[in-house]
Amino acid sequence: MSSAPPPLRIRVLLFASYADLVSREEVEVLVPSPATVADVIARLRADVPGAHRLPDRPLAAVNQVHGRLTDPVADRDEVALLPPMAGG
Amino acid sequence: MSSAPPPLRIRVLLFASYADLVSREEVEVLVPSPATVADVIARLRADVPGAHRLPDRPLAAVNQVHGRLTDPVADRDEVALLPPMAGG
Amino acid sequence: MNHLTHEPIEAAWLARQVAGAESGGITTFTGVVRNHQDGRSVTRLEYSAFEPMADAECARIVSEAESRWPVAVRLRHRLGQLAIGDVAVAIAVAGAHRGEAFDACRYVIEEVKQRVPIWKKEFYADNTVAWVDPTKRKHDVDAAALTERPPVVSAP
Amino acid sequence: MNHLTHEPIEAAWLARQVAGAESGGITTFTGVVRNHQDGRSVTRLEYSAFEPMADAECARIVSEAESRWPVAVRLRHRLGQLAIGDVAVAIAVAGAHRGEAFDACRYVIEEVKQRVPIWKKEFYADNTVAWVDPTKRKHDVDAAALTERPPVVSAP
After folding, report:
1. What ipTM was reported for this prediction?
2. C97 pLDDT more than 80
3. Is the previous residue joined to D117 through a cis bond, with omega within 30 degrees of 0?
4. Which residues have a Cβ under 8 Å from the Cβ of B88 and sit 6 or more positions away?
5. In Å, how far are A84, B3, B37, D91, D108 from D60, measured between CA atoms?
6. Between chain A and chain B, are at least 3 CB pairs below 8 A?
7. pLDDT digits 0-9 by tens, C5-42
8. Which helix (DSSP H) or strand (DSSP E) does residue A42 occupy?
9. Which of B6, C101, D99, D136 gets the highest tally of CB atoms within 10 A of its CB?
10. C134-144: average pLDDT
């Protein structure tokens, strides 16, 4: 019997209104491998106080590039949750 | 018998390449009344040395407003013949 | 960090950078802090960003515009505290032909608004504060502020 | 004579005039003297105008833009001798919304080119001179210069 793969360690960044909702700008989340961005968000919303107030389908970037919720994540990836952008 | 109406006295202005072609910037033309811008141009081309080199259907302005060749002219009107414009 | 700055910015300065002997037309866009938004009186605002990603995204947008049209593009977005009349974003585009310069300039500002992770906190004359959500603009803003929008809190 | 000048002009100066607390977006267009035209090397040029009509036509264009869109518009065209890199025309438009500012700015430059009685004499590196005819641009220019276009003469 092979052992289960180790969980993925994901750094989640929160900005602007999302940081206000959770009262944090950075959270580390562990998810079983394999996992998608959506899995990371679900774990965050379930485990971190206040994070249930985040939308369940926010915009997200993986390693500083816009991504989709169905994109896979790898160990040590950085997932940024992006409130509606308001530059310009 | 009524006498013929007096001819219309029209001041014609020439600019840029048109002034070069005719070697003049201003010409006075007399045309029988009633007359249009086209009549003024035809008279100019027939009577003024070099003016036959002007196009027979140039852009024209009457009293500093863009006009059509079929527009009527009145005594003392100013007709400007406008080479292709190149501002901007 | 070429596209973000905490210092004042000016379109004319960017325009001088893109102008060249080959360029016939230069277009600029300047986004200025307005004194009103959706009927509310704004007194100042604060831009923040996910800075490394925002800078990289600006670079990607500039590069896209320069490959799609034969133009040279400069883009700067300001961060931090801004007052009414301050320039928030400036874009300058130079090209041999004006149509391309207009199209590329418009492209850049639209993409900046869509894609660059920058956020804006507005401070209102009634001492309230809100994060701006352009996706909710002009759709029953007051109600949205009380429900789905980030909470409106009193300023200190 | 508000829209024509023999002095250097700058879009940034016009932009400062149109900017107001209500304006969210300012667009500018600057037309610059290029060092080439239709493959020929240009050394300098000279703009002349039917001045009173050109100024009145500029005023009409500005007024049309300001009535068609909720914007403020400034327009200046330079006349006389210009060198490579000099600004020939500058337009600044301020509006509450960027789309309107872009559309109005584009409208003004297109109308200026179509309607304002201004003419351009180009001086080329081979010491020839020609009046520019935009209606013939890029259509067999050399042949046109020898036949229908105003004669190409040697510069003094």
Report:
1. 0.89
2. yes
3. no
4. D31, D77, D88, D89, D109, D112, D113, D116, D118
5. 42, 42, 23, 14, 10
6. no
7. 999 999 999 999 998 877 789 999 999 998 888 788 99
8. helix A37-47
9. C101
10. 55
Mean pLDDT, consecutive 10-residue stretches, chain A (88 aa), reads 85 98 97 98 96 96 98 98 97
CA–CA gap between residue D44 and residue D95 (Å, rounded):
35
- Cα A37 to Cα B2: distance, rounded to the nearest angstrom: 97
CB contact (8 A) between residue A64 and residue C121: no
CB contacts, 8 Å: C84 with chain D: 21
D119/B65 touch (CB, cutoff 8 Å), yes or no: no
Residue with tokens 């602007």: A16
The CA distance from A26 to A63, in Å, is 14
Whole-number average pLDDT of chain C: 88
* Buried-state track C71-100, b at ≥16 Cβ within 10 A, e below 16: bbbbbbbbbeebeeebbbbbbbbbbeebeb
Q: Please check whether residue C87 is in contact with residue C75, taking contact to mean a CB–CB distance below 8 angstroms.
A: no
**Nearest of A73, A58, A47 to residue A14 by alpha carbon:** A58
**How close is the nearest chain D Cα to the Cα of B85, in Å?**
6
Contact of B31 with B7, CB cutoff 8 Å: yes
β-sheet bridge partners, residue D81: D46
Q: Which pLDDT score is estimated for A9?
A: 98
